[in-house]
Amino acid sequence: MTIFDLQKTSPLPSGETEILMGFLLKKEKEFILTHPELAVPKNIYQKYKKLEKERLAGWPIATLIGHKEFYGLNFFINKDVLVPRPETEIMVEEIINIIKNKQNKLILIDLGTGSGAIIISVAHESKKMFPGKYQKNIFRALDISLPALRIAKKNAILNKQAKKIKFLSGNLLEPLINKKDFNDFSNHELIIAANLPYLTPSQVKNSPSIKKEPKIALVAGPDGLKYYRELFKQLKEIKKVFRQDKSFSNRFKKPITLLCEIDPSQTKSIKILTQKYFPSAKLTIKKDLAQKNRLAIIKILD
Ligand SMILES: C[S@@+](CC[C@H](N)C(=O)[O-])C[C@H]1O[C@@H](n2cnc3c(N)ncnc32)[C@H](O)[C@@H]1O
């Protein structure tokens, strides 16, 4: 059995045999592509057939080989985290732009961090581009899933950001809602990057390509907005409480920027939600590379 024989007989989509064989033989995909005559050892063939079966059962290729590239960096991936998507890179670009244009010190929160792709990419890029601001800015990564946080921490070590990013577990912003932690941020402007679950149960049911990814990373109630709705409510409550409490009267006087990745079908609903909770906020919708509405940027001014 050669690589060529495998390519000819495998039921996998084009390109995937090469990725799996590259992973098993510890070679680049390009090496596999240019060496079709290579004989495949029996033990490797058996491992390949096992991976092929798992792939056909719907496991993402990144989960099978254990890593994924995102924003030019390498990330460990396992069954506990969502595979970071190329469309999420626009969220990273927007945050880098915000950092570039702000003089205030920032606290950057990655809400629903999963593999840590967003915050680690932002931290890595801003260290390169704005070392002075990188020193002053604060980075926090939050997730309700402890297994996901374990992978995010490994990725922070892999990409040399472990000392800069603090990882916290809990429901949405709850890990930060204690006076001590917010105390540290009194002079910082808050930026929240939220790629929370935003799909409906039927969207997940009808998408075979995502059926093996963690449900906790995908489904968000009947209209897919359960977590964004809860987050808006939480944020409004935080602002209200802090405004009433004299010792916190300086908190959040500066604008808050909230970035939410959405499904294109939620454009109107996110506008309505923003209007309901933050009537004077400025909302901008950004498109992804496929020209679909993907990112809501909400600037909360009051
Ligand atoms: C769509 S994934 C995004 C992962 C990663 N940020 C990315 O862009 O690849 C959503 C993440 O939100 C987390 N999550 C779900 N419900 C949550 C909640 N109530 N509070 C905090 N995180 C939550 C999930 O565990 C998952 O890691």
Task: Describe the protein.
It is a single chain. This protein is an alpha/beta fold. It has 2 domains: 3-57, no CATH class; 79-300, Rossmann fold. It is built from 13 helices and 9 strands. Strands 5-4-3-6-7-9-8 form a 7-stranded mixed sheet, sandwiched between helices. α2 (16-25) crosses α4 and α6 (89-101) packs parallel to α7. The chain starts with a helix and ends with a strand. The mean pLDDT is 93. The protein binds S-adenosylmethionine. S-adenosylmethionine is lined by residues 82, 84, 88, 112-115, 117-118, 142-145, 148, 171-172, 195-197, 216-217, 227.
Secondary structure topology:
Elements lengths: L2 H7 L6 H10 L3 H5 L8 H15 L4 H5 L1 E4 L2 E4 L12 H13 L3 E7 L5 H13 L1 H6 L1 E6 L2 H13 L6 E5 L9 H6 L3 E7 L6 H5 L20 H19 L11 E6 L5 H11 L4 E6 L5 E8 L2
Parallel strand pairs: 3-4, 3-6, 4-5, 6-7
Antiparallel strand pairs: 1-2, 7-9, 8-9
Overall radius of gyration? 21 Å
CATH superfamily of the largest domain: Vaccinia Virus protein VP39
Global mean pLDDT:
93
Shape: elongated
Distance between the termini: 67 Å
Q: Quaternary state, please?
A: single chain
The CATH architecture classification of the largest domain is 3-Layer(aba) Sandwich
What brief labels describe this structure?
alpha/beta, Rossmann fold, two-stranded antiparallel ribbon, binds S-adenosylmethionine, seven-stranded mixed sheet, 302 residues, 9 strands
Give a summary of the structure in a few sentences:
The protein is an alpha/beta fold. The chain has helices at 3-9, 16-25, 29-33, 42-56, 61-65, 89-101, 117-129, 131-136, 146-158, 179-184, 201-205, 226-244, 267-277; strands spanning 67-70, 73-76, 105-111, 138-143, 165-169, 188-194, 256-261, 282-287, 293-300. Helix content is 42%, strand content 18%.
